[in-house]
Structures are given as C-alpha cells and as structure tokens.
Amino acid sequence: MKSLFKKTIYLLPVAMLLFACGGKGTKKETTTEVVNTSKTKQLDIEKPQLTFGFIKLTDMAPLAIAKEKGFFEDEGLFVSVEAQSNWKNVLDRVIDGQLDGSHMLAGQPIAAGAGFGRQAKLVTPFSMDLNGNGITVSNDVWSKMKPNVPADSDGKPIHPIKADALKPVITEYKNSGKAFKMGMVFPVSTHNYEIRYWLAAAGINPGMYSADNIQGQIDAEVLLSVTPPPQMPATLEAGTIYGYCVGEPWNQQAVAKGIGVPVVTNYDIWKNNPEKVFVMTKKFVEENPNTAIAVTKALIRAGQWLDTPGNRAEAVKILSMPQYVGADEAVLANSMTGTFEFEKGDKRAMPDFNVFYRYNATYPFYSDAVWFLTQMRRWGQIPETKPAAWYAEKAKDIYRPDIWKKAAKLLVAEGKIPATDIPTT
After folding, report:
1. How confident is the model at residue 36 (pLDDT cuts 50, 70, 90)?
2. pTM for this predicted structure
C-alpha cells in the first residue's frame, strides 16, 4: 500500500475545483442584527406538520431555537423535534421517511450519494454551524503528554497542542502491549477526518479504509472506533478508549467530571470549518418545495438569533432542557458563551468556537461538499480515483444553495436579514 502521506496526483484537480467552487478564505463577516420586525409572508405550505431529528449536541441549536422562538410557527410550520440515539439511526430514519428532516453530519448525505455506506438521494439546503468540536484525552494520557507540550511564562500549555506530544505516549502504550484506542462519532464525520488530520500531521498513522476493512484500521497506529457523542465521556471513563474527538458539550463534560482534558479544538485544526447540516430527502424537497424553503427560512433566522450578541445565555438555558441537549447549563456555557475550558480551571477566550450565522455559516457551499469527498478519497472510503468533474457533480447533487437563496431573498424582502448577507460566490 502506498504511504499514507504520499501526495497523489488526484489532489491537484480537486484543489483547483475547490478554488473554483468558492472557498471560505474570502468570506466576509455577516451581520447579526435584525433589520426590522416586518411580518413574515407565509408560503403555500404543502406539509405543515413535520418531525425533525437531532443528536444531543450543542450544534443542534438552530432547531431548538427555531422551535422555541416561534420561527417555525411564523412560517406556518408545526414541528416536533425528537432526539435520536446515534448517527446511523438518524440517517436510516430520514431515508425511510420516519423523519422529515434532521440535524446530520455533513458527510452523511455526501457519502449516501457517493457510494460509501447506505445509498440514498439526500439534499442539504442549510449548514447548521462552523467549528464546535474538540479532541479530549484521558487524565492518564494527558499526564504523559503534558511534559512534551511547550509552556508559556505562567507555566500553562501553549495552544494549539500538536499530536507530536501524543506520539511518545502511543509508543509507550504499544511497548506495554496496549493498542492505543480513540473514539470518533461516525466514519464520515468531520470528527473522523479532523482527528485523522491531527494525528497524520505528527506522523501518526490513523489507518486506512478498504472494501474489506470498513473500520478504517489498516496499518493503524491508533485504532479509531465509533461511539455515539453522548456516550463518549462514559466510554473514556471506563477505559474502553483513551481519547476522542466529539462535539460539545461532551468535551466540557469530561472536564466537569474530572475524567479528561481537551487538548485541541477543530477551530485550531481548520478555522471556521463546516460542521453539521440540515438534511431532507430529494423526494421530500421535490414534493414539498415551499415547505423546504419555509424550513430553511426559519433555520436561517435561528442561526442569526444565536449569533446576535446577548442571546447565548438564553440559548444555553434552552439547550439545557431535557428534550434538547439536557446537559448542565454550566457545562454548556463553557463553550457556548465565548470561552473553552481545557485543563480544569484553564478557561480561555474562544469567541468563534460555536458560529451559527457569521462568516456565512448557514450557506451550503459546494466547496465544503468537495472537501468531504476528498477526505473520503484520501482515507480509502472512495477506493477509486475520480475526475475533478465527478466531485463537482456530486457536490451540486447534494448541496442546494438554490433553496437557501430563495429562503434568504424572502427574508431580505421581509426585512429580517440584509441583502449583504447573501454570498455572491
């Protein structure tokens, strides 16, 4: 097998395609001020009664806010929002029609259309957030990592922390006969690709996928396995895994329980990276086009509300409700209100850890979809080389900025967002 780190020829056309699709490098700050309070103009809704799914993570917030602040009702929608047990269940229930739509990993609709895992025609008209993930290790692993981490003049670790500090710990575990095991939430999750990138940048092989090895552990120095997000802290505490990559509040929960230490966030790995999306089937969107636009309108408003200064404290209270994330307010606030706690007591300013509207966060960029496809190819989930045109076609099949733009233009006409918040790429 070729080296994990060897550059392959397909990367060049893909990189050119990413540029052509419009990356995030030139994205401007978007406003979070509501222009005025003009009345919502309701569309002719084909299906007003809807059921949406989510996993208990802070980045499901747009769904909770759209419901609790009445944005769905403003559009003539009556929405039930239901927690799901794991990401596979989310995918299956949307495909099977048990859910009309759901909070979903960005890689899930893309993989479903690209030949990896269960196949289906899914679309996303709305990106739910940027950033929001972290990599946490157990206290034992951190105690061995910390001497390898540079410190500032106050003796505090200098962030971001590279996986170079973890490499000798992995060797120590290996020499003692222990495989080094870490968790991530799903094979096509941002978390899987982020932890792989972080490890690989330090020369640590996180393994490859193949048709015969769907665990992605070929030649792996770190064994990555799937654990549902809410179960990460308990799995770490039980010693089943020694670290994990997950969204909030499950990194902060490890800090609160005193069982682990977050060492890096995905904001430090890739600034303003796309995270979750809202997904419906292509069939649903074709049969209920006005409903899809109305849902997108409500979610855009929710994202804007979340990024309006002064609203995060209320958002934390809403998310702490048992029907949503159900975590303690203090744990949620640790990452939702502009800070992030690493070691216990080492709380640092991180105003962009959770972004729901700024930097065009809600817009489904084709370039985001292409990035996920390249990661699937990089790690062997897509086994064959594909031409650049294939990446572009798949992105356009799944990401639907046309629906987003219809929704956004209606919000502009209603005076709810400024026209300058609509991307021109």
Report:
1. very low
2. 0.91
